[in-house]
Amino acid sequence: MEKLKDALNFSDFSKAERIGLIIFSVFLLTFPWIGAGSFTTTVMIQFLLFSLFGMGWNTIGGYGGQVELGKAQYVGIGSYTVALMMVWWKVPFWVSMPIGILIAVGYSFIIGYPLFRLKGHYFAIATICTSLVLKDIFDNWNLVGAAKGIELPIHDHPDFLYMQFKSDTYYYYFIMALFYIGLFYMNWFRKSKLGYQLRMIKDDENAAESLGIDIRWCKIKAYSIASAFVAVGGGFMAVYNLYIDPASTMELSLSIKIALMAMLGGAASLWGPIIGAAFLVPLDRFLGSWLGGQKGLTGIDFMIYAGLIMIVSAYQPRGIWGIIEQFRKRGH
Amino acid sequence: MLIADALLQGILMGLLFALVSLGLTVIFGVMDIVNFAHGEFLMLGMYSVYWANFFFHIDPLIALPVSAVVGALLGLASYYWFIKYLLRGPAIAQLFGTFGLMLFLQYFAMFLFSADYRMIDKGLLVGKSLSVGPFIFDWTKLAAGILSLVAFAVVYYFLHKTKTGKALQATSLNKEAASYMGIRTDRMNAIAWAIGGGTVGMAGGLLVNFYYAYPMVGILFVMIAFACVALGGFGSIKGVFFAGLLVGILEMIFPVFGHLIGSDFLGPHFKFTVVYLAYFIIVVVRPQGLFGWKN
Q: Can you tell me the distance from the alpha carbon of B152 to that of B149, in angstroms, rounded to the nearest whole number?
């Protein structure tokens, strides 16, 4: 109960931020009614999904300060669990998604234990490696469809148990609900003991250790929380796309996107991943549909994307949120 | 027989891997930065030779210096225009910065050259092979191995015998102490990037003789290079040479073992999985690598 109160308590934010959150929430709630086309709805769903991924990444990557570039493997675990259980045993989404989370968390503990012996570059590259190993295995494993991927059985009628709907609006509200659960959880997390411990570790590992914090265990816990977030998103991806393959769920570029969105928005802040996703997802989609489609212009969208990343990392490593805060401090 | 053949082929590939990884380890040694865009330097080296061959009909072997120069200039440009500014920020920003550079160069190449797979089909050595006893070598791979070895030796000589090379090593041992001795860190960093870019560009020029050039080719080789650098010990030049050889042999011999015991699960699809796994196990079990001295 106390935790729930903490999660819903945004009072330590400034007035502007709270008003912003309310306006944003009203916009999210009414979005399907204010004349949104199917393309914008897809973009919004993508935005919410990536905000969820980014919030997950923010636990270990933002608050914990560990450069984690292997989140795609947990997207894969989440989506494959949901898809395979549905195809093989007709298990409803509501059963298979929690199982997917459990598998992701279990796997993250197994991987995290050796992984968090490492620091800095070693850690970053090792996370990429683990993710690529898993992708290679799924790419060649005939039982799970190998590189062809798997299609989910389509039901004739909309089915809440299997999360199959005719209209994207339902999916939109579902991912929005997940988004808010994630947001409230993160709001609690940043004030929790683990949240403070992680920030301490990020600032100074030696000092944290001398205060009796079990660094490795803290990082593993944060890593598994991040994995759970991402696995939920993965499960959603499976029922939303009705088709998954290793290339769309476990690709390195997905891991990078997840980390970059949080980074670009501002790591270690509650709003960072949301701002990052709000910025990059539409940029990605609209630039992609404007420029990517035209002949001779392929790649321009990602060049702009990459250029932004380079500028942000060179001039304001704290991301867009860092820039906003800088301006606010100057204003006072 | 099969194993001996794979061993020899593996050594040739390994020499090339060593050259690819050399620049990464030099840059890491001097500045403690992991350059994710390293594979993209390789990719642009490949393209420079490809285009020189395509437009001016220069033989890929003779165009090799072009790729080295392109790589070195690219290294210098990225240092002076970008990496320098990253150094002010925290380590996490440096990682993401070079990641951004990697993406940028990938899509820049895609924009300029499209995503097509390109391969050189005409050249002095292309398509010819040499048979020594029971073994058959592609001339392209043989040349790649031998020239890699030569390039590696030249850089090794430069680093250990010349004054600039010694200054570079001093900087990588202790940046501050070296700067008190009058060694300019900034210039050393730039030299490290030039060497890094030049060697990997040249490796790209060698590689394009027998491997497709496409915008995303870098990521595979940068992962291999990471594995080599980790195995050799981050920053160790001697280490990266032996590590390259080992990874090359591992990558060639693994599918052969799979073939011999009739297992599909050790097939060629997994040859790079082994490299990734090797990296993971090495850094966890022995973070300092085989010859490492830097933590």
A: 5
Which A residues, 94 through 113, put their C-beta within 8 Å of a C-beta on chain B? Answer: none
CATH number, domain with residue B206: 1.10.3470
Model pLDDT, residue B268? 59
Q: What is the mean pLDDT of residues A182-201?
A: 91
- Smallest CA–CA distance, residue A131 to chain B, in Å, is 9
For residue A67, the model assigns a pLDDT of 83
Kindly report each contact of residues B153-158 with a partner whose C-beta sits within 8 Å and lies 24 or more positions away, as own/partner.
B155/B22, B155/B26, B155/B195, B155/B199, B155/B237, B156/B237, B158/B195
Q: Which of residues 127-186 of B touch A (CB under 8 A)?
A: none
Residues in Cβ contact with B233 at an 8 Å cutoff, skipping those fewer than 6 apart: B239, B288, B289, B290, B291, B292, B293, B294
Best mutation target among B78, B82, B86, B95 (most A Cβ atoms within 10 Å) is: B95
Is B94 within the bounds of a domain?
yes
**B87: in domain:** yes
Please tell me which of A57-61, A161-165, B57-61, B94-98 the model is most confident about, judged by mean pLDDT. A57-61
Per-residue pLDDT of A28-40, as tens digits, reads: 888 888 866 788 8
ipTM of model: 0.80
Asked whether the beta carbons of residue A314 and residue B97 sit closer than 8 angstroms, the reply is: yes
Q: Which one of A136, A298, A305 has the shortest CB-CB distance to B273?
A: A136
pLDDT (tens digit per residue) in A286-322: 776 776 556 666 677 778 878 888 888 888 878 888 8
Nearest residue to B145 (alpha-carbon basis) of B271, B250, B290, B248:
B248
Is the pLDDT at B212 greater than 50? The verdict is yes
Pairwise CB contact (< 8 Å): B91 & A132: no
CB–CB of B239/B231 below 8 Å?
A: yes
Q: Which of A113, A129, A198, A297 to mutate to test the interface with B (most CBs of B within 10 A)?
A: A129
Please state the domain count of chain B. 1
B220 in contact with A, Cβ within 8 Å: no
Q: Does B115 touch chain A (CB under 8 A)?
A: yes
Spell B43-61 as b/e; 16+ CB within 10 A means b. bbbbbbbbbbbeeeebbbb
Size of interface A-B (CB pairs under 8 A): 134
Q: Which domain holds residue B260?
A: 2-104+138-285
| d(CA A218, nearest CA chain B) in Å | 18
Q: Tell me: the pLDDT tens digits for A251-289?
A: 888 888 888 888 888 888 889 899 989 988 888 777 767
* Dihedrals phi, psi of B130, to nearest 5 degrees: -120, 130
Structural domains of chain A, ranges and CATH numbers in brackets: 2-26+40-331 (1.10.3470)
| Shortest Cα distance, chain B CAs vs residue A118, angstroms | 7
Specify the pLDDT at position B178.
85
* Displacement of CA B240 from its chain's centroid (Å): 10
Residues of chain B contacting A139 with CB distance shorter than 8 Å: 269
Phi, psi dihedrals of residue B132, rounded to the nearest 5°: -115, 110
User: Model's pTM, two decimal places?
Assistant: 0.85
Residue B201: inside a domain, yes or no? yes
- CB-based contact (8 Å) between A260 and chain B? yes
Q: Is B254 within a domain?
A: yes
For A32, residues 6+ apart whose C-beta sits below 8 A from its C-beta are A41, A169, A172, A173
Q: How far apart are the first and last CA of chain B?
A: 41
